[in-house]
Amino acid sequence: MEYISKSYEETQKIASDFAKTLKSGDVVCMYGDLGAGKTAFVQGLAKGFNIFEPITSPTFTIVNEYDGDMPLYHFDVYRIADSDEMYEIGYEEYVDGNGVSVIEWAELIEDVLPPCRYEVVVSKDYAEDENYRKIEIRKITK
Ligand SMILES: Nc1ncnc2c1ncn2[C@@H]1O[C@H](COP(=O)(O)OP(=O)(O)OP(=O)(O)O)[C@@H](O)[C@H]1O
Ligand SMILES: [Mg+2]
Fold first, then answer.
1. pLDDT per position as a tens digit, 9-44
2. What is the pLDDT of residues 49-105, one digit of tens each?
3. Cα–Cα dist 27/4, whole Å
4. How many Å lie between the centroid of ligand 1 and the Cα of residue 127?
5. Does ligand 1 have an atom closer than 6 angstroms to the CB of 104?
6. What is the domain-level CATH number for residue 106?
7. What is the domain range of residue 20?
8. Ligand with smallest separation from the Cα of 34
9. 16 in Cβ contact with 44 (< 8 Å)
10. Under a CB-based contact definition with an 8 Å cutoff, are residues 58 and 76 in contact?
11. What is the count of structural domains for the chain?
């Protein structure tokens, strides 16, 4: 699916609608440049799960956990040295756990991503205005 968002709020709405299609154990990989809107999308996912805590990027802790209708495990692996660090923080338990895992900068840990996952790509278009984003959501199955 491909969506066009023209505001932060629209991105959240797209994400919260998508959240309703997710089930426990799903992994959502987020791709996009710095400031594209990955965390904005995760905030929308959280809303979709009725999580009302503010979602901030877990840049230094790698993962933050939130409890709602569905537990949400929010990873940001931007500062990870290598994928082994994922195992050290208990990545497998999260992915096999009872919630949805969402990973910002998933390309940095490509070798440990599960074969079945969602990819969400958020991109700007400099020919459009500064709030314009294209959001592509696809399901990968192997
Ligand atoms: N249509 C839009 N959708 C999402 N965010 C938007 C949109 N238009 C403007 N913005 C702004 O873009 C910024 C997106 O920031 P966000 O932290 O979500 O990016 P990010 O991809 O997570 O970056 P990082 O790689 O640093 O984690 C916010 O300041 C937000 O207000
Ligand atoms: Mg972010």
1. 999 999 999 999 999 999 999 999 999 999 999 999
2. 999 999 988 777 899 999 999 999 999 999 998 999 999 999 999 998 899 999 999
3. 23
4. 17
5. yes
6. 3.40.50.300
7. 2-140
8. 1
9. yes
10. yes
11. 1
